[in-house]
Design brief:
By secondary structure, this protein is an alpha/beta fold. Helix content is 46%, strand content 8%. The chain has helices at residues 19-30, 47-52, 57-76, 92-102, 116-131, 161-175, 219-232, 237-240, 253-258, 263-273, 283-300, 312-315, 324-331, 338-350, 355-368, 373-383, 389-399, 415-422, 427-432, 466-477; strands at 4-9, 38-45, 81-85, 105-111, 135-139, 199-201, 204-205. The chain is globular.
Length: 478
Amino acid sequence: MKNIKLVWFRNDLRTRDHRALYSACEHVAQSANSAEMGIIAVAAISSKQWMLQDESKSRVQFWLANLHSLKDELAGLNIPLKLIHAETNQEIPQQLLRLAKQYNVAALYFNDEAPEYEQQRDQQVEQLFHQQGIGCHRYEADLVLPAGSVLNQQGLPYKVFTPFSKAWRQQFILSEQGPLPAPQPLLSTVIESDNIPEDIGYGLRLGADWNKQIWPAGTESAHRKLQQFVLDQFTDYSQLRDFPAQTGTSSLSPYLSVGVLSARQCIAGVQAYSDDPDWFYSQWVTELIWREFYRHLLILFPEMNRWKPFKPDIEKKIAWQHDQAKFEAWCNGETGFDIVDAGMKQLLETGWMHNRVRMITASFLTKLLRQDWRLGARFFMQHLIDADFASNLGGWQWSASVGADAAPYFRIFNPMRQADRFDAKGLYTKQWLDLDHPDDSNMNTDLLGDALPSDLGQRPQPIIDYAAERRCSIEEYQ
């Protein structure tokens, strides 16, 4: 077969709303010699790179499981999936080129990603392929609206979320964008797919466990979960999303993280299944726009990729304490503040944490323990199944008041008051700490609550005086 198109999959493990795949298939279908053309898909197994980038084991396992499902989807389109094995990003360009030459590839297709280290890798690939006379087609598919397209009246990027979200919504309506369908199946090919290895190093195996009951792999599972959320929970989302003991969020973030679902598909799902006439201005859509906002910032302000604060003038005022004992107590859920510790235990047990509790634990680490926000951001990346570099970085800078549109310096979450407001009956903390469990039929065991820790022992005493540390923190920020 001549004139092969190569489609490179990364964190976009789907066949629907995949611009690179759709475009490659269109080019084949429109060719006068389409019978002599075909498409090969490729993905990179990069165990050492995942470790360097703080990818959590649960996220890598979830990515691999969804890659396996993608392989089956591609087989239905008569597209084989090949694998390259590269320890780091530096090896990927040559590995891709070797595969391209093996199959006489005429052009490479892939979707862009936001992080700078991914963009640098892709630029190296593009340069190498052009040098070899092989076409390279790049597409924006991770973002609904491309970075740099949502600007203020001065033609500059927004640094505050509310005006960004207003402009984003206006522009989205004008764009009339909808998700792309899956391409039509191609003619069958004699090229066979590679087997996805069970053992890929980094202590990871394909069959390794994550919470499959909550997040079964594959696009069909993701779309069923999206439909169920919109039909059953979307209306009450804004009222219930802050209560960690209730199933009030969509829990779709792992699918978004590895690209089994796109943000565009999520918006289309709400439009299709919701009977709320104001669905587009809902809080859930606003959360999707926050995801867009952080990606735009990451691309337009590249120094953020290097762990630099968006507001360095604020960080200059802060003397991070660098107290290893306090940091480890936070990591292990042993601070003596119940809702903080419950969140950290949930993270360690399941690879996931409720969003309200993420804000509480981040505020506690940065503003009460006064530990560097980078430590917390890396710890979250190393443990979250839905770890997303842009959103995680933006969220931690927000909590530490050093990011774009960040929480004001004097906003410090009181963990006791937060528990009273959002876990008044103590259902969440009792679910994750070694406390007496109430006989309450309303306790949520659906969302990652199947296995409760049983070896936590007696609760530790608080490691800080909240009032004193709050005063010290505010004095520093001022």
